[in-house]
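re: ur question from the group chat, yeah i did fold both. here u go
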Amino acid sequence: MTDTHDRGPAAAAGLTHFDAAGQAHMVDVGAKQDTHRVALASGRISMLPGTLAAIAAGNAKKGDVLGIARVAAIMATKRTSDLIPLCHPLALTRVTVEFEIDQAGASVRCRARVETVGKTGVEMEALTAVQVGLLTIYDMCKAVDRGMVMTDVRVLEKHGGKSGDWRVDAPAA
């Protein structure tokens, strides 16, 4: 079956995961130079103040919520190409995941920094780390707070590669 749908603006915008026939494919990065690439992403999960207090005190019923969320985020980062179709498998050289408790906002912010020396960027890996970190917090606390909300997941900056450096003008608070 042939897809005859006109890609129109998508093709004009320079999206690269479509071939000349409009079919999805993995981009060929074979001719690119290996460069040091870095991406920083962040996101937030809001919750009831009592849930945040239990996380901050380290006495949530399931244990060290942030410690387990950090490990889950790092593990997921290494499996990004298994989760995201057409994403290249990368040899990561460094992954850091940090959590910041915001008592006033009754939330936890997750930041992930991912690095590699390779032919393609690590933005997807950084975003995966943040989302899995936040999902793990949700999973570990959902019995007492099903109304938690994950928001503001985004790339804050990237460095390296052909397109150079990029940074969001105003990082999410």
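okk and heres the other one u asked abt
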Amino acid sequence: MDKIEPKHANESQAEYKTSSRFHNNISHETLALILAGGRGSRLHQMTDWRAKPAVPFGGKFRIVDFPLSNCVNSGFRRIGVVTQYKAQSLIRHIQHGWSFLDGRFKEFVELLPAQQRTVEETWYQGTADAVFQNIDILLRHNAKYVLILGGDHIYKMDYSKLLAEHIEKCADMTVSCLEIPLQEASAFGVLGVNDQRQVTSFAEKPAHPVPMPGQAGKALVSMGIYVFNADFLYKQLIRDHQDHDSSHDFGKDLIPYLVPRYRVFAHRFMNSCVNMSSGIPYWRDVGTVDAYWEANVDLISVTPQLNLYDDDWPIWTHQEQLPPAKFVFDDDDRRGQALDSSVSGGCIISGATVRRSLLFSNVKVNSYSYVEDSVILPNVEIGRHAHLQRVVVEKQCVIPEGLTVGIDPEEDRKRFYVTEKGITLITSEMLGRDIHKIC
């Protein structure tokens, strides 16, 4: 099979043209589906009024921007986004930020909301059912391959390498996999593979995960990223839909059925991850407030594990037209400064100190305030003399003058949500302002 990697010095011009044609062909023959309908309840109040993929991340992005950007950067520009739970914020973001694809070249990001399209007139019952209910739409695109993606993880991946491996192995289905510590594997679908990396067993969230051969402390787990031959996928979705004992989920039902009967292979994420730091693949499920805080705060470290300063693999998003960040006052007791921090456009640090924190756009920190080890989402105003430490502040919050949070967890729990690791989540509702519909 022809290579699809970029041209190297020892690769002939003819070989490069062949590989480029191969890459273009498979990209035009592939339809990517991002399953973005989940709530993400472990993020608590952060997903009360928006789906998890719409949650802001990294100072200017939304979580869904990562799989969308991976698609575009991989050359896949026929994309469907499947939505269900409180999708308005997600829909608005995609409309504003992802309208640059050109329909004249059959490029698109198409929204596929739950519409009760089947005769049962039900909402999406599971991940497989979400795809099944849109089969008629998918058939119109006449794709040869279907790439199934989750909309709620942070990572950078070249999907073209995954698809090339799928084609090379003549697979019916390919599952992208991570190697993780065995003690963490119970939260995932765990795979067993042979020497050719064909999947021989699959267990969804087993109580006692099976370790990898020769690596007793690790397990091979599914990332929820799949490639199917399109015709094969449609047949299996119809079969699963007719099984009344099925919960119509890829991990719980489809994969366990397919593994002993068809050619299902595992793809190592190591082989397609982009911008690995120290050779370690970056993939994060920011599904808890602790994990969300940790992943955002890591971005302000000297060498973050996730490289967002990469011109070759940018993360695309909706760009607001905002003025640059501003830091004002330089008195000894009233100095506007941000140290070891990331500050987005539209922010004003007015005689306040910000340390080791990430500020999204349009945040105003007023005089004599102190913000440390915190994640502040867009359009927040922090009043004078406030002290915030190890907090996540939701959009639109107005922090009262003199409020102290993060020093006394027991006192904080009376008003706010405090995690097991001591991270405090602050929302407008907790502060007595009912603006939950602004998400």
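fwiw on the second one: The CA atoms of residues 29 and 142 lie 8 Å apart. The first strand starts at residue 30 and ends at 35. idk if thats what u expected
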